[in-house]
Amino acid sequence: MTMKRHTSRTVRAGVAAATAGVTLAACGVGADPVLHPELSDEDVTISMNWWGADARTQQTIEAIELFEEEYPNIDVEPQYADWTGYWDRLATTTAAGDMPDVSQFDQIYLSSYAERGALLDLATVNNILDVSDLDPNVLDTGRVDGDLYAVPTGATTNGILINTTLFEEYGVEIPDTTSWTWEDFERTSIELSEASDGEAHGLSPFGGDSFSLTVWARQHGGQVFDENGELALDPELLISYWQRTLDYIDSGAAPSASELSETLGLPLDQSGLVTGSTAMGFIPAGQFIAYQSAAPDFDYTLANWPVDADTEEGFQYLKPSMYWSAASTTEHPAEAALLIDFLSNDTRVAEIFGLDRGEPANPAFWDAVEPLLDEAGRESLAFTEAMSEEVGDTPPITPSGASDIEVLLNRYYQVIIFGQSSPEEATEDFFNELGDAINAAS
Question: Where is the signal peptide (predicted)?
Answer without folding.
Answer: 1-31
